[in-house]
Task: inverse folding
């Protein structure tokens, strides 16, 4: 990435450095950040020092690396709290979890990928949980491919032109094969995957649509493969599609009669928060 001058390019550099933490390691050093962004170490160091002074990043003297600071955490929490997509999806996630007993999630499309906005963890002793707020690629897993399938042709071309890295041995990285999968997902109205982001995990996802029926996110159900067999995936897919449609309608401000009416608070059956995690939780 060539270095440029001017106010806009400086702002872009700051944003690019902060975005390294959204899909990279927990901490990162000056040398690695400079290499990944194509900037000089002096420029990266100067920006990181400025961000440290504002609490957006924090310096760890022991590792000589930087991680996100308290101000970044505050911004992230505020963004999640104020997300319309998260707010309208949550009662539908609770409904999915209560009926299917597996973890239900909502994700948003973001530049360069997507991220989990929220989850309602499954009711089984062994269940799945996701990492909320981390940027993930669109080519790996049911959620990402579902969002990509319902994106614009230009967005699809851009995503498939990038370095498609294998997250697991099951991740599809061939652009032609991915295009064929995306066409099938559009025809089916949902996506399913097995072990593409985490070995032993399976998921089903359906798109949340915005203007011109372009995806702004997705609703999904995920669980261990030994429970989400091919037969089970086929059985739960209509529920996931229906929930995503309700979220689409709610996000657009349209009436959604017959939708779930559970409050986004304690579970109506157990009195516990849907975010309470009992038993064994497998994060992926």
Result:
């Amino acid at each position: 990435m060539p270095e440029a001058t001017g106010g806009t390019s400086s702002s872009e550099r700051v944003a690019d450095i902060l975005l390294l933490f959204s899909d990279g390691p927990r901490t990162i050093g000056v040398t690695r950040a400079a290499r990944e962004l194509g900037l000089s170490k002096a420029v990266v160091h100067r920006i990181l020092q400025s961000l440290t002074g504002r609490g957006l990043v924090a310096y760890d003297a022991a590792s000589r690396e930087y991680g996100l600071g308290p101000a970044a955490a505050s911004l992230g929490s505020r963004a999640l709290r104020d997300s319309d997509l998260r707010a309208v999806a949550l009662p539908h996630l609770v409904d999915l979890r209560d009926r299917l007993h597996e973890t239900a999630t909502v994700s948003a499309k973001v530049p360069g990928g997507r991220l989990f906005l929220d989850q309602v963890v499954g009711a089984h002793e062994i269940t799945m949980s996701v990492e909320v707020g981390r940027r993930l690629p669109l080519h790996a897993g049911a959620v990402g491919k579902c969002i990509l399938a319902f994106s614009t042709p230009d967005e699809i071309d851009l995503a498939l032109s990038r370095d498609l890295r294998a997250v697991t041995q099951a991740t599809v990285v061939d652009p032609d094969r991915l295009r064929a999968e995306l066409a099938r997902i559009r025809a089916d109205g949902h996506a399913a995957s097995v072990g593409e982001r985490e070995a032993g995990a399976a998921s089903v996802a359906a798109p949340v649509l915005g203007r011109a029926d372009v995806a702004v996110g997705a609703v999904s159900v995920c669980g261990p493969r030994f429970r989400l067999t091919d037969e089970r995936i086929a059985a739960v897919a209509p529920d996931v599609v229906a929930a995503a449609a309700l979220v689409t309608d709610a996000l657009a401000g349209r009436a959604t009669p017959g939708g779930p009416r559970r409050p986004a608070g304690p579970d109506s059956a157990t009195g516990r928060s849907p975010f309470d995690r009992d038993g064994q939780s497998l994060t992926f």
User: Anything to note?
Assistant: The chain is about 40% helix and 20% strand.
